[in-house]
Amino acid sequence: MTGIAMPRPDADVIARRAEIVRAMRAIVPGEGVVDADVEMRAYETDALTAYRQLPLVVVLPETVEQVATVMRYCHDNGVKLVPRGAGTSLSGGALPVGDGVLLSMMKFNRVLDIDWANRAAVVQPGVTNLGITRAVEGRGFYYAPDPSSQIACSIGGNIAENSGGVHSLKYGLTTNNVLGLEMVLVTGEVIRLGGKHLDSEGYDLLALATGSEGLLGVVTEVTVRILQKPETARAALIGFPSSEEGGQCVADIIAAGIIPGGMEMMDELAINAAEDFVHAGYPREAGALLIVELDGPEAEVDHLLAAVEAIARRNNAGSVRVSTSEEERLRFWAGRKAAFPAVGRISPDYLCMDGTIPRKALPQVLTRMRELGEKHGLRCANVFHAGDGNLHPLILYDANKPGELAAAEAFGADILRLCVEVGGVLTGEHGVGIEKRDLMPEMFTEEDLKQQQRVKCAFDPKQLLNPGKVFPVLHRCAELGRMHVHKGQLPFPDIPRF
């Protein structure tokens, strides 16, 4: 048993399943509807595999009109709907509900337009993150945000979670690289936000939609910024005796005014797992490894690499190795990109956490995390975007051993509380989903959460889109602003709260 619960399925909707499936087949004919249990198993979870739930039915539309019609039907008939991309969410953001339609957008997989003059690409949401770069690299361009799962994760999912990546320190998260969206609202209305132009007038609804975790609408088209590849890019592998010394080096590099293209850190456990998996040439004797990439004009890169090496030596670096070719630079990054699957080889299961802290707190937080591991009796491999303080602790456990999943959850919750305690936030790029949902009050007051839910109600008054995610307590839209507890008794006791 785990401490995370999903909303109780609506028995009335379950009873109407055959009717709902027939309606979906009428909207999306052919093989676009999956309703057999054995076939729906592929959709019962996302990358947060500790939690599983079969959906009511899976629908794979191919046109915007089909998406709009499915959503209109769900709205008019009180049926919940969960949008899904590639299913790589690490926060349970794409976890289905038993009384809802799972809307898979992976047939929306075409690159629609590349506008070289405006440095923009228009793609469908099922195109993979790496697929965008592949489409433009022939002319020396690329798409900057690069999550470790970029070979598989979809741009639609990146929009939902505001994904980052190893180069987000210099080039920004998804929200900094998206120019426009086409989105279908729960009523079936199709809207456009932004475009190929740099800025839009009025409220910044594009930023609101980016990172909204499927709670406000379903994205059917994305316009992204593409960048020209820098003249030179070189990476340095820097080994330290301890994570604390590596963390201090990160803070010192940023304090010196140097903004690397990417700056990643791994601890000893992750270093050796990645080296066993990829053979990237990592220093096995190091207690921590820092990968620092500088890009730009060759003379600038050479100057900054020398400055970074000097800072590293002042922080007791045991080894410094700078790439001498593009192949070597890519090999340095291959180990980091493969760190998550590499750690999967040394533990039957792991929880990948995601919190963000001020850079100056890195040494303190790494020390505290080691103490928390001893408290909970579990190992933790640290892999993180050091430059922007985005931590990804991998908590190792064995689900077959009684109590270990619960211990991993408790360990993860303590890490996230620590992030908030030192002035950070609960998530940097994986989203809240179900994983961090019940920790939201650690960061937000009840009034803060109500205000966020008012935005949700403006887009989805029946609260049918991706239910059970983000908000720890369910409020009816009509209640918001009037909820109070009198003598320990909650009003509207019939409303399920999870």
Automatic annotation (TrEMBL):
Keyword Protein transport belongs to the record: no
Key word Oxidoreductase present: yes
An MF annotation (GO) of this entry: oxidoreductase activity
Keyword vocabulary terms for this entry: FAD, Flavoprotein, Oxidoreductase
Cofactor(s) demanded: FAD
FAD-binding PCMH-type domain boundaries: 51-229
Name listed for the protein in its UniProt record: FAD-binding protein
Organism: Stappia taiwanensis
